[in-house]
Amino acid sequence: MSVHQKKNGTWYVAFRVAGEPHPRREYFGVGPHAHQQALIRDAEIKLQRVSGAAPAPRRGSTYLDAVAQAYIIDRKTAGASRRWLIEITGFLNNHILPALSTTPLDNLRYTDIIALVDKKWGNRTLATRQRYLGYLKALFRFGVEHGFTKNNPLSKWRKTKEPKRNLRLTLEGLELILAHAAPHLRWALEVEWEIGTRPGPTELFDLKWDDVDFERCTILVRGTKTHEANRTLPIMPEFRDRLQKVMREQGGEYIITYKGKPVLRMNTALRGACRRAGLPYHVRMYDIRHLFATVMLANGSDLAAVSKLLGHSTIATTQAHYYHVLKGEMSRALATRPRLQQQGTRAGTTRDNSTA
Questions:
Q1: In the chain, what are the domains?
Q2: Most exposed among 8, 130, 134, 202, judged by the fewest C-beta atoms under 10 Å?
Q3: What b-and-e string marks burial along 212-229, b requiring 16 or more CB atoms within 10 Å of the CB?
Q4: Signal peptide span per the entry (predicted)?
Q5: Which residues are within 8 A (CB) of 222 and not within 5 positions of it... i.e. 6 or more apart?
């Protein structure tokens, strides 16, 4: 239990609750009045501790930090991955709650949310901004469903359809990146190329050595995005041997680490490798997953099998993203048409001959 101040001047109280892995935070805004409110709340929690009671919620209006705390506990109970929990907790504590937890939840408006997102991530990609808004919409929906508030300022927000991004990465480009990558990045790219998971904390960086069945040559991917995302994938014997070698050398719990610790992203390392490789185009970790699927389909692999490997909810999703690379599909479709009896002969000539 203690009172702290963030770099932006926001005062908050941090305290622990039994059974929760991270301290709770309650935010009070900036300035002397906010500092005074934080001191009062800290004293209140300490008094509750002395009497043997668990810290009770703030009196008066409900604030977003209370909903966030309940939401994290709910997601943990539901089996959300440790990586995702770390990511969402950091996102909320570092960016959202300090800005939005000083206004009662019932008074938050859509314009407050959009202004915050624009201020913090206005120069980021549309996909990034929409991902963060998606997190917030889920949080507000949870608050409404569990009786914290009747107000969901993002209830009418919908994702904007993102323009399709042309895949420019090639096998040659990937090999160049590998040649210039730091060891931890090179290993992450190798794993991604072998099994094509969703890169990031939900799948690729959440893989554990316990997920590998070395005897059966399979690996369990604990996906969270769709009902098909949780899947057991085959691995090639050569990659199985490579996994065993790295496990002996690296140890630990997770397959992909940096200096012995789990990772959440490798964007900076990837940008550096691409720069050193001299690639004239931007590359994301997701591009390796797309290349994984594209090469298999272009070489005639079964669409349903690739869809299962990717963890797509339906084969239609895979078709929508990759049909243009299916080897010879349009040519085979044209070849199914019957040939015309008089093909190569002008219709007018045939009629003239029949009436002569």
A1: 171-332 (1.10.443.10)
A2: 8
A3: beeeeeebebbbbeeeeb
A4: none
A5: 81, 203, 206, 211, 230
